[in-house]
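Thread: Newbie trying to understand structure tokens

Hi all, I'm a second-year student working on a class project, and my supervisor (Dr. K.) asked me to get a predicted structure for one chain before our next meeting. I've only ever worked with sequences, so writing a 3D structure as a token string is new to me. If someone could post the tokens and maybe explain what I'm looking at, I'd be very grateful. Here's the chain:
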Amino acid sequence: MTSTKVIIREAQSEDAQGVLNYLKFITNETSNLLLTPEEMAQKKLTDEINLLEESSKSSENLFLLATKDEKIIGTANMKSFLRKRISHRGTFGISVLKEFSDQGIGSMLLANNKLCKVY
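---
Reply by user tm_fold:
Sure, no problem. This is what the structure looks like when written as tokens:
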């Protein structure tokens, strides 16, 4: 059996449904995320499309996907604060499906050079 590679790439608006499916699954898989299953149930496809479009156009925000066989197995996202005095700060989140934990997926997401911004 041939093993496929993990691909780390920026999320695009076309990934919105896949991201929602991933989030629905992972919020039920773990309680270690800020997003609860109840909050996830309220998310709309159009909102996710808008979020991913904004992220892909922004130099201040980033939403990465880890995929294997075209399945989303992990995500990392960073969003900078908009106010000038705190623009060097932001929020960061990372998640990996339990099935793929301890395989270095989180490290691959963190190692993406687009997460690093030089000032």
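A couple of things are worth pointing out once you decode it. Strands lie at 6-10, 61-68, 71-80, 90-96. The CA atoms of residues 85 and 119 lie 14 Å apart. Feel free to ask follow-ups in this thread.
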